[in-house]
Amino acid sequence: MGEQARAEPTKAAKAPKSAQPAKTAKTAKSAKPAKPSRPESQLALVRRARRINRELADVYPYAHPELDFENPFQLLVATVLSAQTTDLRVNQTTPALFAAYPTPEDMAAADPEALEQLIRPTGFFRAKAKSLLGLSAALRDRFDGEVPGRLKDLVTLPGVGRKTANVVLGNAFGVPGLTVDTHFGRLVRRWKWTDQEDPEKVEAEIAALFPKSEWTMLSHRIIFHGRRVCHARKPACGACPIAPLCPAYGEGETDPDKAKKLLKYEMGGQPGQRLRPPADYPGSPAAPLGAAG
Q1: Is the pLDDT of residue 31 over 70?
Q2: Closest CA to 272 of 214, 220, 234, 216
Q3: Lowest mean pLDDT among 26-35, 205-214, 232-241
Q4: Which one of the listed residues 11, 141, 163, 255 is annotated catalytic?
Q5: Which residues have CB under 8 Å from 38's CB, separation 6+?
Q6: Over 60: is that where the pLDDT of 183 sits?
Q7: Residue 97, exposed/middle/buried by CB under 10 A (0-12, 13-18, 19+)?
Q8: At what angle do helices 125-142 and 112-119 cross, to 10 degrees?
């Protein structure tokens, strides 16, 4: 989950007081959590999970969807395009796409080859073009050209599963949902909130740990942390602000100086994934497609 009339809902968290992330890691070497001597009770798990969420809210008060969009249709299309690529590459591709096809009716009538060429930078462009043509036609024919605001309707659209539907519901309609992408799944398993691999089972088990009102922002915080600090191959454990709460501490680099070099995006002093980030984002915008550097 590279990392948008404006459809973005009001943020659940307040903007940071300064242009820097609210928390930085301290001496994570001394923060190694103790191994539990007995299995964790459900109550203890809920308390630990909610404490991690509160800590992440302090670290990422500006957490947000990292796809540029201006309405539900644009978010739906961008989310479909984000499969197997970065949000950055999608954000660099969609300005020309939406200029050519601003509505479902326009996209449904698109020449397939022309559409493929516009979305080619996102990869798997033939399959994605087929999904975009199908979902646009479905919106035109079955939903009067409007993106539906219900999960059961969204998942009937070509190329749209629960993850995509929850992204659209949470960020375009303000309907709480959990976005179980690869980052989300990896982190909740590292934190031992669940041992499930199937996304729907992960979604169900994590949903049971938090009030529904937290689901959308929890997703943003976890995905932010996964992209910036808790990487798949080499987590920056020594620069992780929630290291004392993490049962997987030590799987990555624990030396604070070395770990700091692993940080990405605004945490590492680099541009983010959005060309048009929210006003409270403490990093710099990404460059358009083809820009130098």
Answers
A1: no
A2: 220
A3: 26-35
A4: 163
A5: none
A6: yes
A7: buried
A8: 120
The pLDDT assigned to 28 comes to 44
How far, rounded to the nearest angstrom, does the alpha carbon of residue 23 sit from its chain's CA centroid?
20
Residue type present at position 222: I
Q: Whole-angstrom Cα distance, residue 56 to residue 15?
A: 14
Sequence-separated (6 or more) residues with CB below 8 Å from residue 176: 169, 170, 212, 213, 214, 215, 216
Say whether 17 is catalytic. Answer: no
- Confidence label for 4 from pLDDT (cuts 50, 70 and 90): very low
39 pLDDT tier (thresholds 50, 70, 90): confident
**13/34: higher pLDDT:** 34
Separation CA 204–CA 194 (nearest Å): 10
Q: Per the structure block, which two tokens stand in for 77?
A: 């299309």
* The one-letter amino acid at 224: F
Tokens representing residue 279 in the block: 């006003």
Q: For the chain, how are helix, strand and coil distributed in percent, rounded to 5? A: 50, 0, 50
d(CA 190, CA 93): 33
Non-local CB neighbours of 54 within 8 Å, separated by 6+ positions: none
70 to each of 67, 119, 182, 276, how far by Cα in Å? Answer: 10, 18, 25, 10
Active-site annotation holder among 26, 181, 201, 234: 181
Report, in angstroms and rounded to the nearest whole number, the Rg of the chain calculated over CA atoms. 19
> Among 64, 70, 67, 76, which Cα is nearest to 148's?
76
Q: pLDDT-based confidence at 290, cuts 50/70/90?
A: confident
Which whole number is the average pLDDT over 132-161? 97
Q: Is 197 exposed, middle or buried (0-12, 13-18, 19+ CB in 10 A)?
A: exposed
Query: Is-catalytic flag, 163?
Result: yes
